[in-house]
């Protein structure tokens, strides 16, 4: 997958649904014009400056932030993904998290976490009480897609909890 950035020893793996067509074409994560991902990282304190999508590979070396998705196939919208793609993606993502053992798995959207864990009820923003993979903390964050009806300030507030924990792990 062209947008995937993984290695062992990561601090965070950001897990999305799948690459958007724009991200896939450009080869960079969260590359859509209206996606707030990099602004949210910056304003929440997860990065010291505002990165552009083209610089996303640098987050691997600069911060230990990696990227993957539950499904590899690019689409215009996540609702184009099939149940069989999710079933296969759950197994592959479980293997990746087990293999790479990031300190934190950040699910970029409640739907991503729900598809991975099959937990549909009672999922709240932030760190989850139980982790799927031993020694990997699960953090559920809002999607940063421009389609999300949450304000930037609301998104930043949630991601700030992740930033605060990251500061204690460094």
UniProtKB/TrEMBL annotation:
One GO BP annotation of this record: base-excision repair, AP site formation
Pfam families attached to this UniProt entry: UDG (PF03167)
Keywords annotated in UniProt: DNA damage, DNA repair, Hydrolase
UniProt name for this protein: DNA glycosylase
Organism annotation: Alicyclobacillus ferrooxydans
Gene3D superfamilies to which the protein is assigned, alphabetical: Uracil-DNA glycosylase-like domain (3.40.470.10)
Location of the Uracil-DNA glycosylase-like domain: 12-154
Top-level division of the source organism's lineage: Bacteria
InterPro entries for this protein: MUG/TDG, Uracil-DNA_glycosylase-like, Uracil-DNA_glycosylase-like_sf
Gene Ontology MF, one: pyrimidine-specific mismatch base pair DNA N-glycosylase activity
SUPFAM superfamilies linked: Uracil-DNA glycosylase-like
